Amino acid sequence: KRITLEKNRGVKVNGRTEILPIKYSSGVDIFLSGQYVVLTADFGLNVRFDGNHRVEVTLPNTYKGKVCGMCGNYNGNHLDDFLNPDGQVEPDSASLGNSWQVANDTSCSPGSELDPNCTEEEKQVIESSSFCGIITDGSGPFRWCHHVLPPGTHFTNCIYDLCALHLDPDSL
């Protein structure tokens, strides 16, 4: 079965729109949980999609270091999570996504790296400690993490996301 989780919490199975919940004898369940469409499989896969921009994928530890793709390889090393199918590191998320695109799927066109447009006023709000600034705040709740995980990349990604999502508080 080909299962597609679509925008606005739509679900298609083999190209046909389905009404949730669905339970398959193969051990796959698809149902709504709060704002998410949730897909679970009996081998431990759990996918949660909000129907807009947030997806969470979890697997049991038994798959550690045994997977690859858009979510990384689950080996604990974040530096090699952007590997393409040829094992080469891609420079950005658009290149990574394009490298994993299925050749026969015409519903998905190649992406490009775009900088979202934010006004200076929006950038000031986003960089404040009420939003992304909390990540780098030396007296904030993440200060104890800074020596283990430098906050710069997370701060930059937070600014990008909030700008692209027009300061959507649900994205925090």
Short recap of the structure:
The protein is an alpha+beta fold and 172 residues long.
Structure description:
- With 172 residues, the chain is an alpha+beta fold.
- The chain has helices at residues 93-99, 120-127, 133-136, 152-164, and strands at residues 3-5, 11-13, 16-17, 22-23, 28-33, 36-41, 46-49, 55-58.
- A 5-stranded antiparallel sheet has the order 4-5-6-7-8, with no helix packed on it.
- A hairpin with a 5-residue loop joins strand 1 (3-5) and strand 2.
Helical run tally: 4
How far apart the termini lie comes to: 34 Å
- Pairing-aware structural class of the strands and helices? alpha+beta
Oligomeric state of the chains?
single chain
Main beta sheet strand tally, sense and closure: 5 strands, antiparallel
Helix coverage percent: 10-25%
Unreliable runs, pLDDT <50, ≥5 residues? none
Number of strands: 8
What order do the helices and strands follow?
Answer: EEEEEEEEHHHH
The amount of beta strand, in percent, is 15-25%
Mean pLDDT: 88
Cα gyration radius (Å): 18 Å
Q: What characteristic shape results from the CA principal axes?
A: globular
Strand order of the largest sheet: 4-5-6-7-8
